[in-house]
Design goal:
globular, single chain, alpha/beta, 7 helices
Length: 188
Amino acid sequence: NYDVATEIGLRSIEYGQYTTEENNRLRTNIKNARNVKILLTNGDNLFQHFKDEFREFLSKPASSMEILLATAGSDFYRQETEMTKLNSKPKDPAYIANQGKIEFNRTRLIGLALDSSQIKIKYFDTQYRLPIIIFDDKYCHLTIRLSPNESPQSPRLEFEGGNKDFSQSCVAHFNRMWAVSSVSPDKK
């Protein structure tokens, strides 16, 4: 319904493989943002695919990032790995490699920053959360990802504006998750 989409500020719906247009919107938003908030499991695909854009974003001295990543040793991450890497158990090489992606991406991002204080990272270890990317607290890219599907097999919604601006719900959710998440990457 067009009226509902307009009311909640729905700007785009994507599904399937990422399109050039969708990637270009993300590239532009990353490069032009002052603040980025990201909630995802390990960030491997996002941070690899948009590495140059994140480097450009972090080259701006006033830029800042808040990132919520899964806790690698948690029951949640074990279950998520088993669901997405079918038949992958804790001693399997694929499982071990997947656990290392959280620390790898944390280190990768900090290496892109002019100043490591630009990036703040916290960890969650319970309840699966939908991947969210928020730009300047006004634009939200939300992926409705249900495991075992990965992001290219999931609907992706982009919000900005509207009378009942859903991007503000994304911001409120992220901020609440931030408040209850841990600064330690170790399982609680």
